[in-house]
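#structure-requests
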Amino acid sequence: MELAFSNSLTLSPKLNQQQIQFLSLLKMCETELQEFMEKEMLENPMLDVSSSPAAQNIDFHNWYQNSSYTLSSAGSAKKCSSYDSCAWLNLVKTDSLSSLHQLVLEQLDFTHCSKADIATVTYLIESLDERGFLPFTVEELARMSGISKEQLTFWTISLKQLEPVGIFSYDVADCLKIQLTENGCSDSLAYKIAAEYFDLFITGKTGQLAKKLHTNTDAVRDACRILSELSPYPSIPEPPSHTRYIIPDIIVKENHEKWEIILNDSWYEDYSLCDYYYQLMLTTPDKELLQYLKNKYRHAHAILNNLIRRKQTLITLTEKIVMRQDSFLKQAGPLNPMTMSEIAGEMNISVSTVSRAVNGKYIQTSAGIFQMKDFFKSGLTDSASHASVSSDAITKQMKTLIQSEDARAPLSDQQIAERITSENHIQVSRRTIAKYRELAGIPSTRKRRLSKS
């Protein structure tokens, strides 16, 4: 199905090719970037891997702006538009997307969509896990991104209409409910079981289900059969299986109590402009050849500039992350609360820029290799000290409470939420505790009671 966006602003600024290219390079991991540069080397004679002194001594920027060999077809250098330098980052659909992201994006029409809507939709798409679930509540997404809850709620509901059925659901139960609604069974017994008694369904307690639902066991078995025939996850095409090796994009080392950040990109530092073709461009009388070399020069020059810009962006971003997560990297504490919105504000760039920059990137540290996006953790604010408490810290407290609970009367999610709320002066909901408990692989209250009895 196609989802068209309406009641939104029309986009006026047009993207130039260099801006689109920068976003594409920023999105790439090191392996993808290396493949891209190898392809460009084959297609562009202006690119060279040798470090030519003649080429290195050229002031490319001034040559481009001031020389008689200006690269615009009109005979004079064209100036870029003066609109917000970060705004275009929200508008570009890049090629280096996972099959799941691509599957979702192919159904969307951004033609008349506002920049705010595009940023929200892009953020939600990139928040999907590998199963097609959205494993965060609207409140958590709002805290992490800085996007309003109203905006996130609207687009989450809208995106659930896309294919495959069940995409953007919160968990298996939610996925089953969406499939039943799609089949016109929202009033069925199966829907009621998925919505209210999912724990009893997955443990096969048909007798208890019949009692709870005030019906006979045959009706419950039929409803359970219907649920078991549905897909627990959105039916996403399986990618071809292959061994995947993780190559860190960034290496972080501790050197004399200071952090050293190294971008794993030494392989492309030897790229430069080819002096032979540059000199040929300056001297050839052939107009067609001159125009060809001008175009190739412009493209090669943009790539080299954008590689530098990409490196600066990633290093600055990593510096911000390392400063916030110093104790974790020294293996002296959990991850501190940190949102993309906060880092974007410090770097004076958009949240979607940060989201694209961290996507698919890995950082190698003394504590292990981590996905860059894993360093971003939502948190809750202590009303007494105004300090933030991370989700990892809440999970740790939850585990401690469960380990010390009475085996005959395990704590419910609501009781755990109330205790953590009281101890930390923060507001933790039952749903938040349930989510953290499931992510930690801890059984529900009922299952813990049965296993300990």
